[in-house]
Amino acid sequence: MTYDYILNEEMRIYYVLRAPSLCEARDREAAFKKAFGDAINVFIISPFEWDFLSKRFEIRTLEV
After folding, report:
1. CB under 8 Å to 40, separation ≥6 — which residues?
2. Are the C-beta atoms of 63 and 16 separated by less than 8 Å?
3. pLDDT tens digits for the chain (64 residues)?
4. DSSP character for 46?
5. Cα-based angle 52, 61, 10 (whole degrees, multiple of 5)
6. In the prediction, which pLDDT does 34 show?
7. Per the confidence metrics, is the pTM higher than 0.85?
8. What is the DSSP letter of 57?
């Protein structure tokens, strides 16, 4: 499974698109907590915000 995200290292935030279901959101949250721990915060954003941020930051992929 892979999850795309945008990382703002300076602010210690990663951004993800809204998940289509609660089950998928829980699975994704568990994968990111395992990868990053609690030292980084998540912001769930809309496709519009994703498009805006992807022009400023690199889109990365977390492979689980």
Report:
1. 12, 13, 14
2. no
3. 999 999 999 999 999 999 999 999 999 999 999 999 888 999 999 999 999 999 999 999 999 9
4. -
5. 60
6. 94
7. yes
8. S
Q: What pLDDT is stored for residue 38 in this prediction?
A: 84
What are the tokens at 29?
Answer: 């949250």
Contact 62, 3 (CB under 8 A): yes
> How many angstroms separate the CA atoms of 16 and 43, rounded?
7
Q: Smallest Cα–Cα separation from 40: which of 49, 32, 52?
A: 32
Type of residue found at 19: A
DSSP secondary structure of 13-41: EEEEEPPSSHHHHHHHHHHHHHHHTTSSE
